[in-house]
Amino acid sequence: MTTKTLLVLFQIMGVMPIMRVPKDSKTTKRTTFNWISKATLWAYLVWSLECIIVVKVGRERLTNFQDNSNKRFDEVIYNIIFLSILIPHFLLPIASWRHGSEVAIFKNMWTHYQLKYLKITGTPIIFPNLYSLTWALCIFSWTLSIAVILSQHYLQDDFELWHSFAYYHIIAMLDGFCSLWYINCNAFGTASEGLATNLHRALKAEHPALKLAQYRHLWVDLSHMMQQLGRAYSNMYGIYCMVIFFTTIISLYGSLSEILEHGLSYKEMGLFVIVGYCMTLLFIICNEAYHASRKVGLEFQVRLLNVNLGAIDRSAQREVEMFLVAIAKNPPIMNLDGFTNINRELFTANISYMSTYLIVLMQFKLTLLRQGTRRAIKAIVNTIFNMTTTASDDDMNSD
User: Fold this and answer.
1) Helix (H, G, I), strand (E, B), or coil: what is residue 212?
2) Which of 22, 34, 55, 275 is a good FRET partner for 123, with 20 to 30 A between their CA atoms?
3) Residues 6 or more apart whose Cβ sits within 8 Å of residue 81
4) Which positions ≥6 away from 327 have C-beta within 8 Å?
5) 266 bridge partner residues
6) Would you call 157 helix, strand, or coil by DSSP?
7) Three-state secondary structure along 102-155?
8) pLDDT per residue over 216-275, tens digit each?
9) Backbone angles phi, psi at 132, to 5 degrees
10) H/E element holding 356?
11) SS3 category, 21
């Protein structure tokens, strides 16, 4: 599988400085990573230049945060939201570059798998419209980034236009990683469907045992690649999920608390845009991982269980049983290097945790509102009492 367009985009942005090896090179590796390669040096330069505008905007946001420390808490959190979105830029060297060698291993595994698949099955893996899809996702990533950030400029009063230049590449990077995850997950499903089709053809042959053994090794390689994908991008997608989790909670709290006090305004609409954007990214990542695991694991397993064992010889039956054991021993799970499994359960768990924290924050907000109401009533009563006392004194003096 080739994702050359996304790789070029990431190299230009300095996100993932891996390099494609020229075809005439005498090596079996098609993708490499080196801390002093041209791509990595370019990443250092791009990241350093981006740091100038990011640090400048971050410093201004931090200054506003400190200046507003004695003001309403709801006004302060707006600066926290946009400070949190800047975090992925500073964590990029740790989260992405440090795992460059693991990403190169994953890319090389795909290259070797395609060659092995072609040699065993006699047919290549066909990824429909891959080239046009990657180009469309690259363009869409930057278009969505510009749209999301400009919406904040027009909906948030304190979001100046020059601030937006610190966020475009960060949002485009998040969109790009989401696009890369989508393509890889669909590639796993496509490879699994092709392998299943060839498996059924092999079962119709006279002596399918040898082919079944070869297909079993192909399937195990596919499962290992799914695990390598999570290992290669574990830090990046881990930080990805944490930033989404934190930003979504603060944005929801900010919007709901403002609606309780002042009603719906453009500022709250801007925060809802951020919430919708973050939750959409998280859903795509979790949903695509779920579908990939289901296609490679459960659906493939069901195909094997539906094989008519009476129509094949004993050696083929034994290979089918070993195939089922291999699937049970090597479950195709998207796992972030042991930290968490990526599936739909992660999405629902995030919603559950977000709801819990949001309820706590809203209880805190309602407490503040009640205290403010009590103080207002007390002030009104004191004012009325003072006015009444003053009027009585004036009447006594006039007598």
Assistant:
1) helix
2) 22
3) 247, 250, 251, 254, 271, 274
4) 219, 223, 297, 300, 301, 304
5) none
6) coil
7) HHHHHHHHHHHHHHHHHHHHCCCCCCCCHHHHHHHHHHHHHHHHHHHHHHHHHH
8) 899 999 998 988 888 888 888 888 788 888 888 888 887 787 777 777 777 778 888 888
9) -65, -35
10) helix 344-398
11) coil
